[in-house]
Amino acid sequence: MASGGKSYFSENVPKIVVQSLFRKYDTDDSGRLQKTELMTLLKDDLGMDSKQAEAVMMLVDKDGSGAVSFEEFFQWLREGQGLKNVDNTTRYYYIRKAVDLFKTYDKDASGTIEPNELKELLKSVGYTGSVESALKVLDKDRNNKVSFPEFLQWLNWIPT
User: Fold this and answer.
1) Which residues form the EF-hand domain (predicted)?
2) Which domain holds residue 114?
3) Rounded distance between C-alpha atoms, residue 132 and residue 118, angstroms
């Protein structure tokens, strides 16, 4: 990945600079970057390949909606994670594995694992409790589905 992209992820970058970058790619002026818009930003401006951009998209889209608000994007930048998850080979390896595993159970490609999909996931790991009780633990934002960040936290593969 191009190292020049890291400058966008500095905690010291003024909010107005990030807003300008965000607006450049918000081509439909919706105030949200749709998946294709964010993928273009990550690949064109930050030099990521498609797999890296997909992993970052899934990490930034906290609610699994398929779009990222400015606040989600800005918070992700300010958290200091920036490119750490794709620049560090070990972290990226585990994130990539998690993305592939997540997509296995996200049968409808909605960007979230819904209760019926969660049932299959839980069965595959030998969980014998109810889907409802598992959902209470996994679903941190209480929207009745598991987003990728929630799934990644559950896996506990990546140290914070």
Assistant:
1) 13-47, 48-83, 93-128
2) 93-159
3) 10
131 and 139 Cβ atoms separated by less than 8 Å: no
CATH number at residue 109: 1.10.238.10
If asked whether residues 68 and 35 sit together in one domain, one would say: yes
Task: Please say if the pLDDT value at position 87 is more than 90.
Answer: no
Mark which of 70, 87, 104 sits at the end of a domain: 87
Written as six digits, the tokens of 160 are 């914070």
Question: How many angstroms separate the CA atoms of 129 and 127, rounded?
Answer: 6
- The CA distance from 34 to 69, in Å, is 9
Mean pLDDT value across residues 102-130: 93
